[in-house]
Amino acid sequence: MDSLLFLCARRVVAHRPLPALPAHLQPVLFQAAFLDGRPLVLRDLVAAWPFPVLNFQRLVGRQELLRDHPCKLCVQAVILAVVAQLRRQLEEPGHHSSLRVLDMTGLPDSASGRAPDGMSVWSGTVALAKACVEVSKHQREFQRRGSKRHKGRSGAAIAAAAPQPPGVDVHADLFVNGTSYGILRDALQSGSASPLRLKCREFQAEELSASGIVALLESLDPSFVRRVDLRFNNLGLTGLSVILPHLSRFPELRSLKLQYSNVDVRRPTPESAIGIRCLAGQLGMLPSLRELNLGSSRLSGNLRQILCDLQAPLESLELAFCSLVPADLAFLSQSFHAPALKRLDLSGHDFSQGLLEPLRLLLEETSASLLHLDLMECRMADSHLDALLPTLRRCSRLRFLGLYGNSLSTAALKDLLQKTLELPDLHLVVYPFPMDCYKPEPPLESGWNFEEPVDEELLAAANAEFSLMLANSGRTDLVWTSNPYGHGTLDYFSL
Fold first, then answer.
1. 345 phi and psi, to 5 degrees?
2. Beta strand 101-103 with 53-55: parallel, antiparallel or unpaired?
3. What global pTM score does this model have?
4. Higher-confidence residue: 441 or 348?
């Protein structure tokens, strides 16, 4: 329920111009204007912002609020207001503004929300980059006009020495691909000399060359970057050996994601052995690293060599579809990473064969710390889940369990639900459609039909049983769902 103060703020921002109000009311007015979609009011508020920091998440509140409200025009309004403020300070040296930091980190990607006109991380990156380039261009034009007015060699010096506004640092999470590469490169290369400066906290690049990624990494302020996410870049060990040395300049880098990097070391060669040693050595140069994602790399038997130089234990390790073998899981269970792991993703491995016992031993070692366990599409049947259940029940802090895409029956899932009710922090379980809820279909003329249709009545009955068990146990806080999408992921940084 909204507070009386917030309800009053909504009435105030419904009309322009705003009345003169005390500075301490500005944050609630900003929140009301943002959530009610009033971009013009937001521009007025930013123009007169009385504080040194404007932090979106702190002002607006929970990410769910941001995700469910149309925010594209509002975000753009805030950016345009900051640009207008800086241009005015350049033109009118006596004009001052309190704003020094615009913090736009943590804004949810509209692709995962329900608002049709929300702002994606990509479009937010482009909007910020264009704003930086515009302000930098205006600064150069202003200096050029000043130089012409004073004429001669000393004129340029006088213009350059003219008082410059302190400017605004924009803290942001940046997403770049081939389409947005040019504008972001230009914005970053304007650097500290520009009145509007990008400070990247989380950097994500898709489908870029190694040289392009390096050019952007070299332009980032090293003191701010905490997460680098490189996916779908087809880098291979050769490309990674070019990029990773440039990450050592980021002392606060805690997360590195290298999904779909086309790394395949299943068949060892002298070249791959050299590449693995290089990769391990470069990972070892990241002292703050706590999260590593090597998803869809083919690492069979090489996990020990890749992780051997890390200076501190990982808290999040994602190895989905990495073709791991028992020796890899055995190493992990005996390593100093196991007792520290909060997030573990081993999706896409066949635990119906020799990996089941190594998995059980690994979960024993992680049971005191594990919060998030993903075992989707692991060819697990009822007997395999039954063998893991005693160990799963010892994971007393578990919050998320992913089992989608496994061949489990309604009876096995009911047993899982009943026996995990005792886990007090368990909040979300993503389960597969029960195998006994599929309709048996004859083979197609051209071959076997691998996509058997679900019997909606049987599935509804199974879901009703799960819901009744949850209601009878009093665990209405526990979500059981067969939808694997749209739940977000656990961010261990906030824990």
1. -120, 110
2. parallel
3. 0.91
4. 348
